[in-house]
Specification:
single chain; alpha+beta; Jelly Rolls; Arc Repressor Mutant, subunit A; 2 domains; five-stranded antiparallel β-sheet; four-stranded antiparallel β-sheet; about 50% helix
Length: about 300
């Protein structure tokens, strides 16, 4: 299995479009440097598990955000909003797997699915888990994740069985400890989660236009103050700050995949003034658009 660098591509709802693995073996393995490529807010049907291998990362799963250090890990349940960013200026790397539950659970009429996986997937309170080696069962879970990841990367004979076996142990541990792994969410938190998805969908659809906090709030049929509270509660920022980050992210992608002039890219991504685009880009990416384009071209030549 080819090892990949994660590149989030989402539809207008924020749902990820990347296919993880193949229909026959639905799992994708990734190794990323978050200083170079952040993992923006998104969600997908697949389950996800990962381990920090270098530096520190801010990992967000739903409303929960933790700074994870080397050796820590995480699990993200199906359809849960999440993202990851480097913490600090040092190199930050992690490897992860996104896999469909059917890889372990087989068909929905199997005992594996009905007895173990469905209670996990259907637990609305279990958005995810942050793993620490100081907790015995969490350390064991991370060892299973590492075993599955290494088997995918190295591909020894029969590695598909090894991957499935390791992930079966991992999911059984989650099943056994899901009562203590996550905190039960209030109705308000669940409602906020649905509202934020609607508002992120609206921003995804209209980021190229001039949009205001009022318009974003109206998309979810709530007041501006409730919109601001929801954004702060769920993703720790304001709607306009998120919009700016999204625009810069889109611009960064176009810098690496097109030969368009930088001014054209800025306009395409919703920036009306070049000076504001350059300032925003440096603020978020730590470099100018020209420097970003040069680095991306150099990386392509190295591959």
């Amino acid at each position: 299995m080819a090892l990949s660098i994660f590149e989030a591509k989402v539809d207008e709802h924020g749902r990820e479009l990347v296919e993880h693995g193949t229909p026959l073996f639905p799992i994708g393995c990734y190794h990323d440097n978050l200083q170079e490529t952040e993992v923006p807010w998104h969600w997908h049907e697949e389950l996800e598990a990962g381990i920090i291998t270098e530096g520190e990362s801010l990992v967000a799963i739903g409303t929960e955000k933790r700074v994870l250090k080397k050796g820590d890990g995480f699990f993200i349940n199906s359809e849960v909003l999440h993202g990851a960013w480097a913490e600090g200026l040092e190199s930050c790397r992690f490897h992860s797997m996104a896999f469909h539950a059917r890889l372990v659970g087989a068909g929905m009429d199997s005992v594996f699915w009905q007895k173990y996986l469905q209670p996990l997937l259907g637990n609305a309170s279990l958005k995810g888990v942050f793993f620490y080696s100081s907790v015995d069962w969490q350390r064991e879970a991370m060892e299973a994740v590492e075993e599955a990841w290494q088997s995918c990367v190295q591909e020894p004979r029969g590695y598909e069985f090894q991957v499935r076996n390791a992930l079966s142990r991992f999911l059984f541990l989650l099943h056994e400890h899901q009562g203590t792994a996550g905190n039960r969410l209030s109705d308000k938190a669940l409602r906020d989660g649905e509202r934020i998805k609607v508002m992120l969908q609206y921003i995804q659809e209209h980021y190229q236009e001039e949009i205001s906090t009022t318009q974003i709030a109206r998309s979810a049929s709530i007041s501006v103050s409730e919109c601001l509270r929801c954004f702060r509660s769920m993703i720790g920022t304001t709607p306009i700050a998120y919009l700016k980050q999204l625009r810069v992210q889109k611009a960064s992608g176009l810098l690496g995949t097109t030969d368009w002039k930088i001014a054209e890219i800025a306009a395409q991504c919703g920036f009306q003034e070049m000076s504001y685009f350059a300032k925003s880009f440096r603020e978020i990416k730590g470099c100018t658009p020209s420097e970003c384009r040069k680095r991306k071209r150099e990386e392509r030549h190295e591959i």
